[in-house]
Design goal:
Blueprint: H1 8-15, H2 19-27, H3 34-46, H4 53-60, E1 65-70, H5 76-86, H6 89-92, E2 95-100, H7 105-117, E3 122-125, H8 132-136, E4 142-145, E5 153-157, H9 159-172, E6 177-182, H10 192-204, E7 209-213, H11 220-237, E8 243-247, H12 250-264, E9 271-277, H13 280-284, E10 290-293, H14 296-314, E11 327-330, E12 333-335
Helix pairs in contact: 1-2, 5-14, 9-10, 11-12
């Protein structure tokens, strides 16, 4: 049998089931008893069956494709998140079509239309550009990650706890001034919790602090230039004071660290630095950088679990579509490395 292409008719004859039953096994396995599913599964092994993916798509209309939209890939967080989502193929069996939106609303809408034309079964959105209310109108399962999520399923870090952890660590480092460097994050975006956590700890302990919320640009070069200017500014304004710097992500932290090393030849004794993500750049930096770990692998897996559950539900004869979005929050983990542990 292995010398020719195995058909549904061959499987039906081998199992003594009808071709309709074999078709149901592939397209609606829940309609068969577990015993019959096991019989057919063993027959596929015995006959060395190779699934015709194109035929299956044409027959069922299900492509096993998931669309992904990320803002960019130069921020290490997004690159690592994408890496973790793509690696979920072994567990869930879905393939991915990926677009980087670069914060352009018109382009991202065009990307979504392109994905829908490929008949994707679901979508994961990390970009902040398109409101969740609009995303929900596309009528396919969608999970968003670390962005405004009122109308969509989502998986987010407990950003407020992360902000508390980062600021508390800098406080324990006996810094004279605490500084948080970030962009102007809207309050309905989960990452705003990092800002609020910083503010609350500073107020609780009556700590001198400065909040630097600036437009850092949309490219790696823009970010690098902006952070270098901030490093020069802090050097001058707080000369001789121990400065605790909490940056919004590990890419920013690494850029800021590099600026200091280029200016001073090494990390000055009067700086303590912590980032946010625990993307690989934090541990692989010339001086390993302290960070708040977002458990990126767990976020990616949880997002896929929610998405797959809802995609599978829609394949049923009478799907029960959830009325309310599912929101999951993942606990962050503090990594105390060299940049806040200079005396060891």
């Amino acid at each position: 049998m292995s010398s020719k292409k195995v058909t549904f008719d061959d499987i039906a004859k081998y199992t003594n089931f009808s071709k309709t039953t074999i078709s149901r096994y592939f397209n609606n396995p829940d309609s068969l008893t577990l015993e019959n599913q096991e019989i057919i599964a063993q027959a596929l092994i015995d006959l060395d069956y190779k699934e015709n993916k194109v035929a299956k798509i044409l027959a069922s209309g299900k492509t096993e494709f998931v669309g992904i939209i990320v803002p960019n890939l130069y921020l290490h967080y997004y690159a690592e998140m994408l890496n973790q989502i793509l690696s979920s193929y072994e567990k869930f069996g879905y393939k991915f079509l990926v677009f980087a939106g670069n914060s352009n609303e018109t382009i991202e809408r065009r990307y979504i239309q392109e994905l829908l034309a490929y008949n994707i079964e679901g979508m994961i959105v990390l970009s902040h550009t398109i409101p969740s209310k609009e995303l929900a109108c596309y009528n396919i399962p969608i999970v968003t990650i670390e962005r405004e999520d009122e109308y969509t399923n989502s998986v987010n870090t407990d950003n407020y706890m992360g902000g508390i952890q980062a600021t508390s660590l800098l406080y324990k480092c006996n810094c004279d001034i605490l500084i948080h460097i970030n962009v102007g994050v809207p309050k309905n975006v989960p990452a705003y919790g990092r800002i609020q956590g910083f503010i609350d700890i500073c107020k609780e302990h009556d700590l001198p602090h400065e909040l630097l919320l600036k437009d850092l640009g949309d490219t790696y070069e823009d970010n690098q230039k902006a952070l270098q200017e901030i490093a020069i500014y802090l050097d001058k304004k707080y000369e001789g004071k121990r400065k605790g710097i909490f940056l919004a992500n590990d890419t920013y932290a690494n850029m800021f660290l590099n600026s200091l090393i280029r200016s001073h030849g090494s990390l000055p004794e009067d700086y303590r630095i912590i980032g946010f993500d625990n993307s690989p750049i934090s541990s692989e930096a010339v001086i390993p950088t302290s960070t708040i770990g977002q458990q990126i692998d767990k976020i990616a897996e949880t997002a896929m679990e929610i998405l797959v559950e809802q995609m599978n539900e829609r394949k049923k004869r009478k799907p029960a579509i959830p009325k309310n979005p599912v929101h999951k929050v993942i606990t962050p983990i503090l990594f105390n490395r060299v940049t806040t542990n200079l005396n060891k």
